[in-house]
From TrEMBL:
Species in which this protein is naturally found: Streptomyces triticirhizae
GO cellular component terms listed in the entry, alphabetical order: cytoplasm
Family: Belongs to the Nudix hydrolase family.
Origin: domain of life: Bacteria
Keywords from the UniProt entry: Hydrolase, Magnesium, Metal-binding
GO MF annotation list: 8-oxo-7,8-dihydroguanosine triphosphate pyrophosphatase activity; metal ion binding
Protein name per UniProt: NUDIX domain-containing protein
Pfam families (UniProt xref): NUDIX
Residue ranges of every copy of the Nudix hydrolase domain listed in the record: 1-128
Keyword Metal-binding in annotation: yes
Cofactor(s) the protein requires to work: Mg(2+)
GO annotation, biological process: DNA protection
């Protein structure tokens, strides 16, 4: 049976670009978010992870499910899958990389290969709907 990493991510789009974050020591960008703690709901995970990574507060009342994606987990043994529930949501505060994030960037479809495999399907869906250029 394959190992499964259960995550939640924040799809934040501006001007046809998506916000990406690169953790310290990692070689690819990811859609901001992270692993669910035991007993956490999607929105609890989303608000905690985004606060920890980007120092902003997600407004849970505005959260909308974009989709849930599964792929091989980047940097993990073959057969380790990551499942990522993706949400859009408004936020309060100034986007700032926390200590665990080395870099944040606005990414386009051309940056798809600079992201983790699970992000590729998100990029493809957003591009197909005209939301990512």
């Amino acid at each position: 049976m394959a190992a499964l990493i259960d995550t939640v991510a924040w799809v934040h789009l501006e001007d046809g670009k998506i916000l990406g974050a690169r953790s310290r020591g990692k070689d690819v960008f990811s859609i901001p978010g992270g692993k669910r703690a035991p007993g956490e709901s999607d929105l609890e995970t989303l608000t905690r992870e985004v606060r920890e990574e980007l120092t902003v507060a997600i407004d849970p009342a505005t959260a909308r499910h974009v989709g849930t994606y599964t792929a091989q987990a980047h940097g993990h043994p073959e057969g380790t899958l990551v499942r990522m529930a993706c949400y859009t949501a408004d936020y309060l505060g100034d986007l700032t990389a926390s200590n665990e994030i080395e870099e944040i960037a606005w990414l386009t479809l051309a940056d798809r290969e600079r992201t983790a495999p699970v992000d590729h399907a998100v990029f493809d869906d957003l591009a197909a709907s005209g939301r990512l250029r």
